[in-house]
C-alpha cells in the first residue's frame, strides 16, 4: 500500500462511511489518517470506527493514524418564541442572560463570558456570520445592539465574537469525557478546538502528556495573534478555514493560510489544511474547478495534509472524494513547478547536529540520485526534521514504536514502518536496505541515504549519515 504522493489525506468518518467495507474503500482510495469528529456520534460509534481501523492496519500491514477532534465550547443563543424571528437592518436588539424565550426585541445569550468581554462597537456574528449585530452599550449581563446585517434568527444559532478573547477553556466537561475516552482507546492525534492563546495548548498538554500528539485547530483571530507561541507548544496545526473565515474577512484567509503553512514548515511541525475543500462532492460526483484549484494551492504551498469533512462523513460520493483528492495531489506533485516552489521556500537548518545531518541527507540524496532517505526514530523527531527539508525522494520512517509510526502517517513524504528495535550499526544498515526493497522503495543496486541517532533510542540525537546499497 505504498502511496505515490507526499501530501497526506485526512478523511472524516460518519454515517456515509460507518461500515468496515466503506472505511476499507476510503483507505484504498488514498486516506492516510481517519478523523473521528466527537461533535457527532456516540462513544460506541467511535470505538467501532477505531476497532475497524486497527483491523485494517493488520489487513494491509500499514500504520493508520486516528485523529480525535474535540468539539470545544459552543456559543449559542437561547430559545426563540415560535422557533424564529426576523431581524431587519438598523433595528435595535437586546441580548441578555435572563434565560427567557427570545422575541422580536430581545434574545437570551446564556454565556456570561461573552458579556464580560464585550465593549461598545464590537460585532457579534450569528449563524456563521449571516446576522451581524454591533454593540451600542453593554453591562455584565446585557448588551444593547443594532442590527448591521439582518436575517432569520432561530433557536440555538451559533455566536462568534471575533474581536474578543473570551475567558473560556478550550476543554468543556464533554471534551474532558471525550478526551479520557479517546486516550484510553489509543487515538494518535487530539485535535483541539477553540484555542485562543498558548496557555490553552498547555492546559491540554497536562492531560494528554505523551499519549497522543496535539493538533491545534486555528479557528480564532486571537490564535493568529499568538501564532508563534502556539506553534511552539503544539505537535501539529490545522488551518480550520470554516470558523476562521467566519471571524475574519474572507479575503484575508488565503494569505493567512500561506503564512501559517510557512510558519509551520519553518518550525518543522505538520500542517493540515481543512474545510470545504471538495464541498460540492457531498452531492455531486465531481468537484468544481475552483475546489480542485483550492486543493492544489494547499499542496503547492507545501501543506503536510489536506482534509475532507462532510464529503466523506455524510456525502453521497465519499470514496470518489478521496480518489479525486488523491488524483489532484498526485498531479500537482508531478508538476515541475511544484518542486521549484518547494526549493525556493526551503529554510536554513537550525544550528544543531541533528539539523545539519538532516539537511546533508537531503543534499546527498539529491546529488547521488538515491531512491529514498531512511530514518530511524523512536519519538519521530528525526523523521520530522527530514520531512521539514521536503526532499526530492521519499522518506522511509522506521521506528520500533507503533504509536510513533501512526503519528507519522500525517507527515509529508513519510512512509512509516514499525520494525524491531536495533542493537548495532550493522543491523541498522541491513534493516534499512531490506525494508526499502520489501516496501517497494528500492531494487537491488539502488542507493539509500540513512540517518539515525547513536546510541539508538535517544530522542533527537540524529548524528549519523550513511549511504548504503540495496541488495
Account of the protein in words:
The chain has helices at 20-29, 43-60, 112-117, 173-185, 198-208, 221-225, 227-233, 241-247, 253-267, 289-300, 310-313, 318-333, 336-344, 353-368, 381-388, 402-407, 425-438, and strands at 8-12, 33-37, 65-69, 84-87, 92-96, 106-108, 123-126, 131-138, 142-149, 151-154, 159-160, 189-192, 213-218, 236-240, 271-274, 305-308, 372-376, 395-399, 414-418, 447-453, 462-469. The protein is elongated. The chain is built from 17 helices and 21 strands. The chain has 3 domains: 8-72 and 170-334, Phosphoenolpyruvate-binding domains (TIM Barrel), CATH 3.20.20.60; 81-160, PK beta-barrel domain-like (M1 Pyruvate Kinase, Domain 3), CATH 2.40.33.10; 353-469, Pyruvate kinase, C-terminal domain (Pyruvate Kinase, Chain: A, domain 1), CATH 3.40.1380.20. α2 (43-60) links the parallel β2 (33-37) and β3. The strands form 4 sheets. The protein has an 8-stranded parallel barrel, surrounded by 6 helices. The protein is an alpha/beta fold and 471 residues long.
Secondary structure topology:
Blueprint: E1 8-12, H1 20-29, E2 33-37, H2 43-60, E3 65-69, E4 84-87, E5 92-96, E6 106-108, H3 112-117, E7 123-126, E8 131-138, E9 142-149, E10 151-154, E11 159-160, H4 173-185, E12 189-192, H5 198-208, E13 213-218, H6 221-225, H7 227-233, E14 236-240, H8 241-247, H9 253-267, E15 271-274, H10 289-300, E16 305-308, H11 310-313, H12 318-333, H13 336-344, H14 353-368, E17 372-376, H15 381-388, E18 395-399, H16 402-407, E19 414-418, H17 425-438, E20 447-453, E21 462-469
